[in-house]
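Most newcomers find our protein records easier to grasp once they have seen one. A record pairs a protein's sequence with a compact description of its fold. An example says more than a description, so a record of this kind follows:
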Amino acid sequence: MKNSLSIEDHFLLKGLEIIQKNDKSFAQKYRLQILELFNTYADELEFLKKDITHQTHIHKDKYPRALQLIKNMGFDRVKDAAKITGGLFEYYVYLLIKDMGFDDIEIGVKIRQPITNSIGVENEFDILLMQENHLHMIECKFRKMNKQEIVYKYASLINLIDDDSRMMILTNDSTYRHNIYDANNKTLSDYRRAFLNRIALRGSVIKHKQQFLEEVSTFFLA
C-alpha cells in the first residue's frame, strides 16, 4: 500500500469502530499553558492531583500557579477532575511528539469491537500513532499504578491494534528506563513481560524529556 491510511480508516478495515476521540485543537489552543503546567509546575500539579483524587481538604497555598493555569484553560476542579488528573497529561505528551513526523496522531480514542449489532466491547487508548501504515500507541499514566495489571491488560490488547504494533506505557516513576538484562535484579519481571509483548514500560517524561523524545524516534519512527 503506497498511501498512508488514517487511524480511523485503519480501524474500519479491521471491523472496529471509533466511537470517541479527544479534540486535538484544545491542545493547540492551550499549548503554552499545558507546557508550562508540566514543565514548570509539575510538583504543584502533584499536590493538586492528590487533593482532587482523594477529595481531601483543599490546600490552595500548595499549588497556586498550577490551579490558576487549570482555571485559565476553563477547567473546574471538581467537575473536570478526570481531565485534570489524566487527560491533561495526554495532551502534554501529544504536544511533545506531534511534530516528529508521524503520518497521523489521535488522542483519547475509544473503539468498539462488535460481538453482535447491538453488543460490543469497548477499549480506550490515550495516544495512537500511525507510521507507514503501522499503528502504535502510548499510554499515559500520571499516577501510581499496578504495573503487573497494566502490562497484562495491554499485552492482551496490543494485537487488536496491529499485528506488529509497538506500545509505550509512561508512568510517573523517577527512573525512566531499567536494565531488563540485569540478572541480579529480581524486581523487573513486569518490565521483562512488557518487553516480550512489544511494550516499553517507562518512567517520568517530565524528568527525562530528551531521553523520551530520542526513544520515540528509535522505537516508533526508525
Remarks:
- The beta strands are 17-20, 104-114, 120-131, 134-140, 167-170, 199-202.
- The mean pLDDT is 91.
- Residues 7-221 form a domain with the Trna Endonuclease; Chain: A, domain 1 fold (CATH 3.40.1350.10).
